[in-house]
């Protein structure tokens, strides 16, 4: 933005804060003013009385006013960011730079969060284990979407992607998922989760709701693993030389089992997907796409609890986990056999998602 634009935005934010705090009175002439023809606008109430009230306020009241003003500024910042992204989408459409078409948001179904469960053709039993535990079925799933704005998987609801399936194509699959999801739903958040991870939907939505006023948020369990340069090993990085000398680590990024991005970031991926580079590992690729942007990285450890007894103990202590899996297996080991037991020990209860603060 230009210097003039920054000044105008700051002034607008200040006035919005004053209006929301109740310190500004509109259409309120002094009581002793003589009657005049037409209407009269008093922008500010008496300055002396105003200063006196502020001076007499308790520190608690002042902090409350500061908090309200801060929230108003956050809301304004998100609105400006959303408008900037809308403009970028329209420019990309005109220039033919979109990997997929992104319709105007007014024509898309509204949602709070879209949860894409990454699965493979051969993983039917894994999908069944999810539908038998934390993923609602039938009417309950439709009610969840209608009342809570949570879109997740169900029987016969596969989101078909223009993509070639394969382990070494996961980065491309993730890129295509976000682009397709943005073109299908107008959501605040888009989540990617593997089909061998246990999720508590109520806790997940509560965690995401904390960041709803932010415009560019990347949420997950942040890590920085080693760059593997030896051919033949799992997670071998063919482009290891780009990350420095041998023995270096990757930059911080969310682990691939589950993570969330806000709408603006998903839109960014959609707009730029033809030129987003793919590294060997999907989670590293996503982290690289967002690393150079003005993005808030949120390290949320409730998204990577270990399986029982860890998540069970935390549940008993009142700290229900949003997601659980085994680090040793990059998911739940033998998830088809164990998902039901983990859900019983660490699940939040069927009613939690309906009382989630969304």
From TrEMBL:
One of its GO terms (molecular function) is galactosyltransferase activity. The keyword Disulfide bond does not apply. Residues 2-93 form the DUF4094 domain. It is found in: Golgi apparatus membrane. InterPro entries: DUF4094 (IPR025298), Glyco_trans_31 (IPR002659). Its EC number is 2.4.1.-. GO terms for cellular component: Golgi membrane. The keyword Ribonucleoprotein does not apply. It comes from the Eukaryota. Pathway: Protein modification; protein glycosylation. It is a single-pass type II membrane protein. Residues 1-21 form the signal peptide. It is an enzyme of class 2 (transferase). Keywords: Glycosyltransferase, Golgi apparatus, Manganese, Membrane, Signal, Signal-anchor, Transferase, Transmembrane, Transmembrane helix. Its cofactor is Mn(2+). Belongs to the glycosyltransferase 31 family. This is Hexosyltransferase.
């Amino acid at each position: 933005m230009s210097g003039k634009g920054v000044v105008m935005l700051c002034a607008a934010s200040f006035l919005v804060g004053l209006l929301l705090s109740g310190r500004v009175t509109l259409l309120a002439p002094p009581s002793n003013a003589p009657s005049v023809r037409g209407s009269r606008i008093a922008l500010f109430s008496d300055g002396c009385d105003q200063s006196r009230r502020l001076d007499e306020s308790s520190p608690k009241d002042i902090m409350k006013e500061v908090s309200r003003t801060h929230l108003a500024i956050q809301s304004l910042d998100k609105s400006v960011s959303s408008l900037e992204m809308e403009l970028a989408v329209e420019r990309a459409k005109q220039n033919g730079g979109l990997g997929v078409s992104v319709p105007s948001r007014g024509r898309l179904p509204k949602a709070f969060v879209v949860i894409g469960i990454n699965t493979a053709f051969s993983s039917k039993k894994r999908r069944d284990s999810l539908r038998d535990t934390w993923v609602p079925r039938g009417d309950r799933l439709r009610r969840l979407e209608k009342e809570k704005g949570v879109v997740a998987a169900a029987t016969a609801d596969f989101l078909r992607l223009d993509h070639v399936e394969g382990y070494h194509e996961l980065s491309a699959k993730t890129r295509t998922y976000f682009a397709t999801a943005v073109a299908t739903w107008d959501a605040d958040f888009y989540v990617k989760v593997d089909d061998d991870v246990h999720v508590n939907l109520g806790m997940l939505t509560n965690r995401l709701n904390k960041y709803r006023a932010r415009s560019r948020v990347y949420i997950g369990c942040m890590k920085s693993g080693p760059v593997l340069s030896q051919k033949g090993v799992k997670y071998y990085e063919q482009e290891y030389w780009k990350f420095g000398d041998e023995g270096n680590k990757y930059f911080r990024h969310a682990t691939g089992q589950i993570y969330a991005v806000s709408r603006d970031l998903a839109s960014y991926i959609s707009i730029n997907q033809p030129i987003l580079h793919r590294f060997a590992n999907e989670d590293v690729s996503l982290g690289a796409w967002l690393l150079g942007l003005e993005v808030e990285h949120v390290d949320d450890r409730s998204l990577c609890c270990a399986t029982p007894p860890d998540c069970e103990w935390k549940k008993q202590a009142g700290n229900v986990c949003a997601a659980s899996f085994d680090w040793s297996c990059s998911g739940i080991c033998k998830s088809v056999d164990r998902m039901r037991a983990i859900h019983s020990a660490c699940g939040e209860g069927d009613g939690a998602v309906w009382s989630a603060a969304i």
